[in-house]
Amino acid sequence: NNKQASRVEVLQAHELLLEQVGADIDAGPLWSEYLALLCEDAEDHSAQSGQVQEVRRVYHKALAQPVARLEVLHQEYEAWENSINPATAKQSAQDVQDKYNVARRAAMERRKLRGAAHLYALARPLRGVASEGAQLMAWRKLWQYEASNPQRLNTAFLQARIEFTFNQALLPLRYV
Question: Once rounded to an integer, what is the mean pLDDT over residues 109-120?
Answer without folding.
Answer: 89
